Amino acid sequence: MSIFDKYPRSSFLSELTASPHVIDIAHRIAELFSALDGLEDPNFGAELDADPQSRIWEMMVSKILKDSGFPVLGSNGDGPDFTVFHRGKKIVVEAICPTHGEDGLPDSVPPLFPGPDYQEVPIDQMLLRIRGAIRDKKLVFDRYRAKGIISSDDLCVIAISSSKIDRARGYSPCLGVTATIGHGGPYAVFDSRTKECIKEGFLLKENVRKANGSLVDTLPFLDDGNASIAGILYSEASVYSLNYDLTEETYFIHNPKAPHCIPAQTFKVGHELWTVLSTGGDAWATYSTKMAFSVDRSIKALVAATS
What is the band of 292 on the pLDDT scale with cuts at 50, 70, 90? Predict the structure, then answer.
């Protein structure tokens, strides 16, 4: 059934069909809903108007799971958003679409203002939003286990969309990788005498400092306390974007500390990333089908020695 037929009283859907758009957002949403129809939780209709982007993300997650070849079970309102079975293992998925934060607060992501003035890229604020989503859903899975809704052997996946954080797209590596394994932006070290590049890689981003001075770590996948999370399904895709490709704009980030791993290519996404830890824990590398990058805690000493 079409989403427009199933929820005819939705003001959000009515506005979509009544207002012209450069891109056919209504058609995109109708296509996505075909993967969710029948899997919605009991509150989906009411929440569609209150928080449409979160509901759209649920549709996207359902499409990713179904396109990956899984029969998908939805939520009854008292358990994970989605459940699939793969090679005898249950995979439970919780979807979340973090916002940019409350307007005006120092740790929120500020809007991008048009004009020629320099504006700092709010990387730390964006990472705080993503990191907070990981923390919140980890607690949800902990509650499910405490209630016996899921078992210790079930594979837990947090599905995060950055679509509400308007400025969180187009970074390399994506902010989902930085928020989980600490891979920051690229760097190059040059010899001051020969001008030759002697090392290049990705900076280590161990934490984010909040406005009140407290630190929030961006290395949850190096913490045994988060080993119960098998991985993060992270997406920059937005139906409101001119360039929209759900598969290509979605990543699956494996947790190297997870005792039960999700097999490679379980999810049909554009980017899949694995992290390998060194024995001493001072360096680690992440590999994907598209690229490889590594971080090293000794980079500060290296820069000082060659400057």
Answer: low
